[in-house]
Specification:
The chain is mainly β and 67 residues long. It contains 1 helix and 5 strands, in the order βββββα. The two termini are 21 Å apart.
Length: 67
């Protein structure tokens, strides 16, 4: 999406590109029985925290669900 905005007292317009990114950062604390996961958005805000079972299938299912 593009946004035009007036700049200062001049009647000129500057064009800024607004980027809606889906970049996520994932932190994992992995243990034998369970893993704690925190997900941050592109701005660094926590959007999800959870504890899941530490198995390959559960971890892959979790990561695939973030897409």
């Amino acid at each position: 999406m593009w946004l035009a905005k007036s700049v200062g007292d001049q009647n000129c317009a500057a064009t800024f590109k607004i980027s809606m990114t889906s970049t996520k950062y994932i932190g994992m604390d992995v243990h034998k029985e369970s893993s704690s996961i925190a997900v941050l958005n592109f701005a660094g805000r926590a959007v999800m925290e959870c504890v899941i079972e530490t198995t390959a299938s559960t971890i892959l299912q979790f990561i695939n669900g973030l897409r």
